[in-house]
Amino acid sequence: MSDRPSYYITTPIYYVNDVPHIGHAYTTLACDVIARFKRLDGFAVKFLSGTDEHGQKVEKSAHLAGVDPQSFTDRVSENFRALTGIMNFSTDDFIRTTEPRHIAACQALWQRLMDNGQIYLGSYAGWYAVRDEAFYGGDELTEGPDGKKVAPSGAECEWVHEPSYFFRLAAWQDRLLDLYERYPEFIAPPSRRNEVISFVKSGLTDLSISRTTFDWGVPVPGDDAHVMYVWLDALTNYITAVGYPTTEPGTPYAHHWPANLHMVGKDILRFHAVYWPAFLMAADLPPPRRVFAHGWWTIEGQKMSKSLGNVIAPQDLVSTYGRDQTRYFLLREVPFGNDGDFSQRAIVHRINGDLANDYGNLAQRVLSMISKNCEGAVPAPGPLEDADQRLLSAVHHLLDDVRGHIDQQAFHRMLDRIWQVIGDANRYVDEQAPWSLSKTDPDRMATVLYILAETLRHLAILTQPIMPDASAQLLCQLAVAPDGRQFKDLGPDNALTPGTALPAPKGVFPRFVEHAAVHDTGPRG
Ligand code: ME8
Question: Residue 305 — very low, low, confident or very high, per pLDDT cuts 50/70/90?
Answer without folding.
Answer: confident
